[in-house]
Amino acid sequence: MANSTRSERGFVPFFRRYTKTWIHAVATAGLTAFGTLTFVNRAFAIVAVGIYVLPPVVLYLRGANPDPSPNSNAAPESERFSDDDERDIASGNENAADDSAESEEDGDDSPVPTWTSVETPTEGTLFDTAVAGDAAYAVGEDGIFLRSEGKSDEWDVELEDGPNTSGADLRGVDATADGDAVWVAGDGGALGRFDSTENRHTDRSAPADITDNWTALAVAGTADDETVLLANGSGQVLRGRYRNGEIAWETPFKPGSGSSISAATMADTSVGYLCDTNDGVFETDDGGETFRRVGIDDVNGTLTDVAATGDACYVTTDDGVCYRGGDDPWTPTRLDEGVGIRAVSANEGSVAACGETGAVYERTDGGWDRTVTPASGALRGISVGASRRVAVGEDGTVVQRTDGAE
Predict the structure, then answer these.
(1) What distance in Å separates the CA atoms of residue 56 and residue 54, rounded to the nearest whole number?
(2) pLDDT of 303-353, one tens digit each?
(3) How distant is the alpha carbon of residue 142 from its chain centre?
(4) How confident is the model over 18-75, as pLDDT tens digits?
(5) What is the pTM assigned to this prediction?
(6) What are the structural domain ranges in the chain?
(7) CATH architecture type of domain 116-401
């Protein structure tokens, strides 16, 4: 059993977790203490190195999963945080989540979701992903645009160097509600539309003659009745309407102070949200024609992504917190300690987020589960579909879950 655990997780993600434990802190202190004694006798150098190196090696060989808490020797691979924990964490009682995770796992016999790693035809970073119907898409460095059909482990290159062959990085991908049209956007004004029914690409780069780097993209509606929202690092938002093979762009505007827009999402054809790097969350109820500020006050980190369902909005930060709301009050939940959450996605009642350590955080039935995935580095984008969930990140990493997804 221990050998299986080690092969599934790997030493690198194990060591990242170990460095946050009290054992590592003690070992580091020992390394420093005995290291200072080397001027007396060089043999103390061997003692110092042994004190630092042996604990993680022994724990790893035993298949232990290090827990940052000094009161336990191992933490479960999947941890749960209930809705009741959210207000406890908001008031400073962050240990409530750990207590809840321990008690709920004792009585929960449901299978742990399985996230598997798949090979991709790129080693560049993938920044975003979208699940649409039976297909999944991913975009990343040098204009790469990947596609996978029907829960398959195979990912094929649709575009190798972007919609305008410039090789500019693609930062965002989103699809219409029916999945028949997929939009990609990125640096240098790169923008393209993919017709999944005809396997045809159209270059729409430099919309409204704007060649700025697009930092956010959101799409609503069905194919040939599409609303497209684009945002850039200057806090500018551009709205377009696609009809009969043509797209009409409106005058760009700034809903906030001009801070960079981190992310955009459309819950449906009317309701959508933006978030920026100045703690601003902006809501639209008219399909992106106008926005109003709805939060968030007293944020410690920087807002990184936003997702929404019909009745709630979720915003993540680079200091490990996810806010749930849409209007006052916003309720924070700490998903991880000192770990940046890079992306969040929502589909009806299911929400999932991912972050810098390669873990995935899934919210179902009013709670959050933290699951260690095979990803060896940071995950940058995530998408929750009806029967498939995909997360992407550094070195062309794609991890996906198809069992039990709703």
Answers:
(1) 6
(2) 999 999 888 999 999 999 999 996 668 999 999 998 999 999 999 889 999
(3) 20
(4) 554 657 556 666 666 666 666 666 676 777 677 777 877 766 665 554 544 333 333 3
(5) 0.76
(6) 2-75, 116-401
(7) 7 Propeller (2.130)
